[in-house]
Amino acid sequence: MIVADFSIIPMGSGTSAAGYVGAVHDLLNEAGVKFVPGPMSTSLEAESFEQLFDVVEKANKRLEGMGVQRIITTVRIDFRLDKEISIESKLQAVKKT
Amino acid sequence: MIVADFSIIPMGSGTSAAGYVGAVHDLLNEAGVKFVPGPMSTSLEAESFEQLFDVVEKANKRLEGMGVQRIITTVRIDFRLDKEISIESKLQAVKKT
Amino acid sequence: MIVADFSIIPMGSGTSAAGYVGAVHDLLNEAGVKFVPGPMSTSLEAESFEQLFDVVEKANKRLEGMGVQRIITTVRIDFRLDKEISIESKLQAVKKT
Amino acid sequence: MIVADFSIIPMGSGTSAAGYVGAVHDLLNEAGVKFVPGPMSTSLEAESFEQLFDVVEKANKRLEGMGVQRIITTVRIDFRLDKEISIESKLQAVKKT
Question: Which of A39, A82, A97 sits opposite B22 (nearest CB)?
């Protein structure tokens, strides 16, 4: 499993991004991707790089469909080979310390 | 109020960061800064840039004190002039859509 | 065209990343992707999200093949609908101001 | 020496950021900070966290003075204890591989 977070910033579409973030969350629900909204980004779990990138691309295309003219996306990916990770395991690891 | 998130990645100190993230959370508690741990980063509220930067610097110095030899920090800052924001208001804005 | 930059941080593999970054640059050359190395990240041009994501995934797999046990990747994507952009056009736009 | 890069994204101020990035570069010149513009971010060298944070705050305040209503800043910091680094040394390290 890959854990990642991403933020999508629309430029030239006003100062509020909530409507666009909401549209991306709808998309994640439709795609059956587990995600956790945060104040600065949305964290998600993906089975593979393909699945992760698929939702990032769809998110951009959805905002394009909503008329956004420029989109800055930041994706941060935790790809770990030495043990299984999940959103839950990562949150628990920090709480235990 | 400034809302920000930041991640601190120790290099050359093994694959687990949980102990270091825990130390940073201790520091945030000591500093009286409101924060929310996430799976990929820690979000926080700061009264000013000074307060935000102070904790980021202290976090780096604390990891230095723990023997970390290289630290990659990413800070993402939401500085909004047209309305008051908080961690809570940002989470609520997305839920309402 | 999409302009993006990405950084790849190996955890648990020492404090130096230069060998890994070099391997990623080899991969970008093999893939025929135009890129510009920077001090903190590598910028590149991609014809599509698919091409961008393909190299990001390959970069992770190459580091996995080199024995890295955990990899934190950050990809920042500029997807602009209102005009054509390139690495060159973006650098020129800033110089003109 | 700390090497860092940062990007400043104005929201609600049109799709072009070049004028704002140019203003930030003026500010870096005035402050005597060594920097290298890139297609996705600006890299810089700072003597200390204080100097780095000072320019990041001033950049936000300058954009505020230009009427920007919301600013998303991302700062990525390379704080290395095991050897001296500079923009030049980091670029050279990658070229050598």
Answer: A97
Instruction: Report the C-alpha gap between A88 and A90 in whole angstroms.
Output: 5
Tell me the three state secondary structure of residue C68.
coil
ipTM of this complex: 0.95
User: What is the tens place of the pLDDT at every residue in C6-41?
Assistant: 999 999 999 999 999 999 999 999 999 999 999 999
**Position B3, amino acid:** V
Q: What pLDDT was estimated at residue B94?
A: 85
Q: Please give the Cα distance from A67 to C85 (Å, whole number).
A: 18
Percent of chain C whose predicted confidence (pLDDT) is above 90: 95
End-to-end CA distance of chain C: 23
Q: Which of A83, A94, A96 to mutate to test the interface with B (most CBs of B within 10 A)?
A: A94
- For residue C6, the distance in angstroms to the closest alpha carbon of chain A comes to 9
Quote the CA–CA distance of A54 and C80 in Å, as a whole number.
18
pLDDT recorded at residue D94: 85
Residue B93's Cβ-side half-sphere holds a number of Cα atoms within 13 Å equal to 18
* In contact, C79 and D7? CB cutoff 8 Å: no
A48: containing domain: 2-96
What is the spatial distance between Cα B20 and Cα B62, in angstroms, rounded to a whole number? 9
Q: How far is B41 from chain D (nearest CA, A)?
A: 13
* Distance in angstroms (rounded) separating the CA atoms of residues B22 and D16: 40
Q: What is the CATH number of the domain that holds A49?
A: 3.30.70.930
Q: How many CB pairs under 8 A join C and D?
A: 88
- As for how many domains chain C has, the answer is 1
Judging by beta carbons within 10 Å of its beta carbon (0-12, 13-18, 19+), is residue C34 exposed, middle or buried? middle
Q: What is the mean pLDDT of residues A32-42?
A: 97
Which of B49, C43, C97 lies closest to D24, judged by CA?
A: C97
Query: Where are the alpha helices (H) located in chain D, listed in sequence order?
Result: 18-31, 49-65, 87-96
pLDDT at C97: 63
